[in-house]
Amino acid sequence: MCKRLAEKLPEYTVQDLNGEKTPETLKKAGINGLDYKYKVLKVNKKWTAKARKLGMSTNTWTVNKAEDIKAMYEQKVDMLTTDFPLLARDLLKEMNINEVK
What DSSP line would sit under 61-101, residue for residue? Predict the structure, then answer.
């Protein structure tokens, strides 16, 4: 479905949610983003940087523990979904990360 959407709407960001495909595979299929559960990105630590180099957007979900939020910030994901936004904001400040998207 992502591939079809990306073909029909190339001006939009289409993010794969499955978590099984590498950034290179997604890009080759015309998909310009990934939105993977944080556990996938913790195991595949280089995927966020690879996606960035390919001009793709990155999001991770649902990141609720401080240690996991920090790990995702360290990987420099573009967006982070959490049930605890105030905790995430406090951690941003603690880590001297000024940009909140």
Answer: E---SHHHHHHHHHTT-SEE--S-HHHHHHHHHHTT-----
